[in-house]
TrEMBL record:
This is Uncharacterized protein YqgV (UPF0045/DUF77 family). InterPro entries: MTH1187/YkoF-like, Thiamine_BP, UPF0045_domain. Belongs to the UPF0045 family. Pfam families: Thiamine_BP. Residues 7-92 form the Thiamine-binding protein domain. It comes from the Bacteria. GO terms for cellular component: cytosol.
Amino acid sequence: MAQALLSIQIIPKINPGEEVIPYVDEAISIIKASGVPYRVGPLETTMEGELDQLLDIVKQMSAAMIERGSPSVMSQIKLVVDAKANASMSRLLQKYPDGQ
């Protein structure tokens, strides 16, 4: 399959009195455990890899939110798929090494 970049903002519905941060931390830990390159941003996290693998990670993240107690999960996703394997965070960010 093609190389891809996938940015995700996961938004689990939480129960009254709960904080959302532990849910988000768990979602990011799933990305980290997958071994794909990723970058956490203030509003979303971007992953790099094969499309099927990235979509499987999204499925795992959603399942983990439900298992943790979220009655529903909404995710906003941005996706770039490149058959020539040109989709890479480092290539797109080479002009901005310091994130500026």
